[in-house]
Inverse folding.
């Protein structure tokens, strides 16, 4: 009990500090660019602005989808406002549709088929694969921990789309010369930097989405699971997946039954390539020395003959 | 549908041309049919390009968000780079290891590699979504990206190949002073070329290290860069054999049969090495279990490893087989097919392991790829015609090199 109390205080402190940071522009945990080299632990990201999704609380009203389109000036050509959730067409993430909510039917722990509404958007990885693979730095990690896209740098190679462990970034296939890559950026430029929460969270009428620091949300999710173990499965999706993400999910149905990717590595993916990349200068130097010596000595042998 | 009929007709026609050359038959229709086929492929490729640059990649390719890399990346870039690996292998053999017997095939090989890299660069320009930003990696550095490293290596190595090819042009133009300068820099340039090639050939494999959850277990391995490099070296050698064979046929010139046999032998050794590491890797990681699944990927893997690695490796290990030009040709073609299949398996079939594939190339994608192949071939023939690529007369060849054609005629 004492321990919980203590952590709650810590959580409150963190939130206060976080909000101050958002408003004052200081005090946020600024992630050093060296995060890619370091085999850092998720504990380094306790202050990252995060969102907790409680799948059991989502009613599938798709208010968040509409709010997202308005907040990010995306075309709202999808019928989002009328009808019952069951009659709505299944929506897909597109370069101009950064979040979707779809009803997904799957077996719960007791083997009974149930339907849950699942929100999808960029998970905002703590150690993002897309940022590490982009050859021109068009994808960057902001000081708020969110991953931003800059079309002016992008060359359209689509390596980010290929590499994303969650299959999130989408491409504008219909543009001849200047297509863009589209994905949720956690409303960083328009809202987060002004100290406001992402539009989708603000629009959620049921509290299925909750905004806060990662540490506080993780604590909250764990305590919800602990207090109602019969309601939730003991798994917070995003806590460890792909090295941890800022978006965290809790549910009463096993995540793999709701279409979530369940076989993800828990280690951050960028280290996989960095292990190879970092060795290249040395390999090149050794090869240069080796071949240089060889060519020189064979050449000399020949001329002396 | 009409597009597909067109592709089939063109493929049949090109195959017929190749078979005519192999069997020394020159029907009167050969030249006009080949010319018309190539021209119509180019018209289709041009149509594809116009639509690609006006309506976007989605309108001409089968690519989509689930399969962001398609045939152009898999064949034109990955396989193209691998097939052009002969350039650095022969350059190193002659200039670094000083095995000067291979000097006569140096120039055509370097030229092939250079043309190959030019086409790879053009293919990349077409494939990236924002082609006008192609220069961004040169100024906007992101050294954590394999793609960044590959871009730099490919650009630098293309420059190296341009320098290595330049003597051919300089000789023709009679610029002796410049020629001397290029010759002095040969060895450092060749060494740079070998390093750059090693780096980007392997790095094309490293591109896939980041997708352990997506690339099928038969192909995903921490050793992907090693596999890409080794298979490229073997394929590069076999491309030299095929290219020399057809040049000899078309130009009715002699060919260095013992050199080709030696290349075949070297390729065989490398293929056995590749096979050994690949099998060890499969056993060690337990990936072989996936072969029991009896799916498309398993079949393709067996086709690749048995049909295009094991069989040619065994064939080329026999001296009697190596000394027969047509056997050598067939084995080399198998190895080339194998490397193309491998790159397709990694970039396409291995990346979409579901009930059905999430990408099918359109006929327009194939037309452009055929356009690249035919364009490269025609450019090579033109260069050979106008530039001193091959040694001028048979007398200039070392004595031991016999000619395939003349021995047959004699």
């Amino acid at each position: 009990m004492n321990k919980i109390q203590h952590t709650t205080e810590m959580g409150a402190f963190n939130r206060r500090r976080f909000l101050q940071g958002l408003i004052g522009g200081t005090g946020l945990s600024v992630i050093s660019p060296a995060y890619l080299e370091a085999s850092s632990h998720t504990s380094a990201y306790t202050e990252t602005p995060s969102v907790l999704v409680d799948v059991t609380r989502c009613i599938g009203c798709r208010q968040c989808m509409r709010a997202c389109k308005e907040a990010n000036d995306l075309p709202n050509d999808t019928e989002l406002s009328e009808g019952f959730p069951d009659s709505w067409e299944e929506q897909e993430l597109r370069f101009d549709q950064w979040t979707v909510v779809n009803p997904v039917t799957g077996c719960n722990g007791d083997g009974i088929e149930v339907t849950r509404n699942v929100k999808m958007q960029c998970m905002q990885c703590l150690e993002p694969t897309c940022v590490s693979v982009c050859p021109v730095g068009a994808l960057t990690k902001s000081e708020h921990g969110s991953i931003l896209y800059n079309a002016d740098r992008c060359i359209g190679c689509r390596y980010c789309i290929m590499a994303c462990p969650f299959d999130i970034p989408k491409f504008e296939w219909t543009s001849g010369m200047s297509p863009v890559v589209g994905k949720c950026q956690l409303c960083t430029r328009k809202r987060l930097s002004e100290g406001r929460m992402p539009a989708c969270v603000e629009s959620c009428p049921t509290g299925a989405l909750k905004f806060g620091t990662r540490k506080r949300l993780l604590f909250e999710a764990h305590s919800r699971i602990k207090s109602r173990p019969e309601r939730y499965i003991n798994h917070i999706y995003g806590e460890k997946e792909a090295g941890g993400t800022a978006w965290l999910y809790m549910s009463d149905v096993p995540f793999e039954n709701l279409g979530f990717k369940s076989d993800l590595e828990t280690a951050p993916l960028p280290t996989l390539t960095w292990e190879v990349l970092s060795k290249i200068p040395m390999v090149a130097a050794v090869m240069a020395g080796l071949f240089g010596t060889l060519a020189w000595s064979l050449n000399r042998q020949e001329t002396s003959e | 549908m009409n597009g597909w009929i067109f592709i089939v007709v063109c493929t049949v026609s090109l195959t017929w041309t190749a078979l005519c050359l192999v069997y020394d038959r020159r029907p009167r229709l050969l030249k006009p049919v080949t010319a018309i086929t190539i021209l119509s492929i180019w018209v289709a490729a041009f149509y594809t390009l116009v639509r690609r640059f006006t309506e976007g990649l989605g309108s001409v390719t089968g690519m989509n968000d689930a399969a962001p890399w398609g045939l152009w990346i898999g064949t034109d870039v990955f396989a193209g780079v691998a097939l052009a690996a002969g350039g650095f292998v022969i350059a190193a053999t002659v200039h670094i290891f000083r095995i000067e017997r291979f000097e006569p095939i140096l120039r055509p090989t370097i030229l092939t590699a250079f043309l190959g890299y030019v086409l790879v660069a053009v293919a990349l320009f077409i494939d990236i979504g924002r082609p006008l930003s192609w220069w961004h990696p040169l100024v906007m550095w992101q050294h954590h990206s394999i793609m960044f490293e590959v871009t730099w290596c490919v650009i630098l190595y293309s420059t190296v190949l341009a320098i290595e090819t330049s003597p051919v042009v300089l000789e023709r133009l009679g610029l002796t002073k410049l020629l001397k300068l290029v010759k002095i820099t040969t060895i450092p340039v060749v060494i740079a070329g070998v390093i750059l090639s090693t780096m980007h050939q392997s790095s094309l494999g490293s591109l896939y290290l980041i997708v352990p959850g997506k690339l099928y277990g038969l192909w995903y391995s921490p050793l992907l860069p090693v596999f890409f490099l080794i298979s490229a070296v073997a394929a590069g050698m076999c491309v030299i054999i095929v290219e020399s064979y057809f040049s000899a046929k078309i130009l009715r010139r002699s060919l260095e049969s013992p050199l080709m046999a030696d290349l075949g032998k070297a390729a065989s050794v490398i293929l056995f090495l590749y096979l050994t590491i690949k099998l060890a890797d499969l056993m060690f990681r337990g990936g072989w279990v996936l072969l029991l699944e009896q799916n498309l990927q398993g079949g393709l893997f067996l086709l690749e490893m048995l049909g295009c690695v094991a069989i040619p490796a065994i064939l080329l290990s026999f001296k009697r087989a190596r000394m027969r030009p047509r056997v050598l040709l067939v084995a080399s073609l198998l190895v080339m097919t194998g490397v193309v299949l491998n790159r397709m398996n990694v970039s396409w079939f291995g990346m979409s392991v579901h009930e059905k594939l999430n990408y099918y190339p359109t006929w327009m994608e194939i037309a452009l790829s055929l356009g690249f192949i035919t364009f490269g071939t025609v450019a090579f023939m033109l260069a050979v015609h106008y530039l001193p690529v091959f040694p001028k007369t048979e007398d200039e060849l070392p004595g031991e090199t016999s000619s395939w054609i003349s021995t047959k005629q004699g």
Remarks:
- Residues 1-40 of chain A have pLDDT under 50 and may be disordered.
